[in-house]
Amino acid sequence: MLVTYGAMKTQAKTLLLIMPPQVGLLSGFSAGLISIANYVAPRQPNVTVKIIDYSEASPSSAAEDLATVCRQFQKSVLFVGITTTTASYQQALALARRIKEFRDDAVVILGGHHATSDYEIILDRHNEVDLIVLGEGELTMENILSQFPDKIDLPGIAYKDKVSKIVRKNPPPALLSTTELDSIPIAYGEYGLIGTPGKFHHATYVSARGCPLKCSFCAVGNEAIRTKSIPAVLRDIEDLVALGYSKIAIEDNFFAHSRTRTESICSALHGLRTKLNNSFTWDCQTRVESLVRPDTITQMEAAGCEAVYIGVESLDPVQLLMLNKTNRPAIYLAKLRKAVSDLLQSKIECYVNIQLGIPGETRGQFNGTLSVLQDLGELALREGRRITVFPQLHVVYPGTVHFQEGLQAGLYSRDIFEGFTAWESQEMPVLLWLGEHFAHGTGGIPIGIMKGDLLKEGRFEVESTRVFNVLDSLRQIAEVEGINVFKYGEYLVSAARSN
Ligand code: B12
After folding, report:
1. Which of 51, 93, 310, 384 lies 20 to 30 Å from 126, alpha-carbon distance?
2. Which of 47, 113, 200 to probe ligand 1 with, by most ligand atoms within 8 A of CB?
3. Which domain, by its residues, includes 38?
């Protein structure tokens, strides 16, 4: 019996919040589920809220355990919420089917990035899914628990009309305010952070949601940033340190998005580190432009920032436009050189996210990328430092501009993720190879290495020459003086390790 988190109540309503198996994916528990549990539990005291972490479990042991869990809550009205990324979607579906086998009266709810983006196809194809919560889930889940099934016009859900079989999408709920975000603690009661707390031996922490930018490959852009207040951030970080975490991954999409916020959060963190005898450090991800602002790097260094992930994505002007990272590539790349040079003169590690396997990449473009890396590598060597490249494989996620563009170009059909995720979940060698070499390789469609003519027909095969090209590019980048290429292997949920 795998661990379930949350106190048992005798009342007759139970919410299970489940992270499905994440075999071959980066290990790390969903902060989103903890946030929903912490929002719903105090507001719905009559509901038993349980979190179940199957992320390190094998699909078979998760299915087996779920049968036991269903029996345990036999007398309860059962709501089951399952989180989805595109890479874990098939695992989520398998759990939904399993629940319906034992409790066809259970209300099965999918949420998270994949379900939100592909809700129409999922609800049309899968009767094992009753509702999909679109986007931010706290308020919507609370409304479902207090009003479903009497009320179906709840903001923030999509569902298939039982009579017309038409998939309906309700208007979004109000997004949580700073006060509401502040009210949500980071740990789930006495259970702390669940499972693997975050990436690369760090604890995941999100102090702000949203990103106003519109990078065409990204699933979370085009939304105004909402932040927790500085006192709440300090409380959360102090809680993380009290829980024994000394390395914190601040996973805000765009950490240094505003000068004032960066100044105030850095001086606050500096004060907290002084109070806590420098017992924690943190890393973050931010954009190039935010790092060339005077003092930003100095403020972050003084506040205990150990590393910055710069979401560069490409070093080629044409690709930067295609990714909609910037509309002034030359200035962007000049700012990158300045930001990297300044980081190398600080104690902060310089991490650079670079996408490989971008469709149509020419040898000339890759050589251009190499020469920019050689220049940055020389900068690093001059300072006795090294820059770490975090390779990402260019993939198409649902709900992105690239997905729409591919659809309009006839590259694949609207329901492509149904077939693709089913294929990928059966192709463990491909999945593990992707996971080994790339943070973002699994789940999205690696359009640059797939056979395009087959993809049009909803069939899937990687083009081996393109795979070798990507591997060769990785090898050449690793050979650049002053550059390290990050290896993800040890941070994946491995098939062997999953029980
Ligand atoms: C922190 C983070 C991680 C961490 C922690 C894991 C996690 N799942 O949170 C780590 C590094 C481990 C990680 C791994 C991966 N990640 Co990640 N991760 C993020 C990041 C930066 C923040 C997530 C977060 O905590 N947000 C704050 C919380 C509060 O929001 P949330 O997670 O979105 O959850 C809210 C809603 O989505 C919704 N919701 C979510 N789940 C559910 C479930 C139910 C039932 C309901 C009702 C609602 C609901 O309600 C929640 C509260 O409002 C996001 C980008 C982003 N900004 O969202 C990418 C992101 C989610 N990751 C992504 C991907 C692809 C992955 C990997 C598959 C990469 C890989 N190949 O290994 C793995 C998946 C394995 C795993 N362990 O999850 C993609 C997903 C895109 C997609 N269509 O699938 C994102 C969107 C990044 C991107 N820009 O593309 N990730």
Report:
1. 51
2. 113
3. 5-169
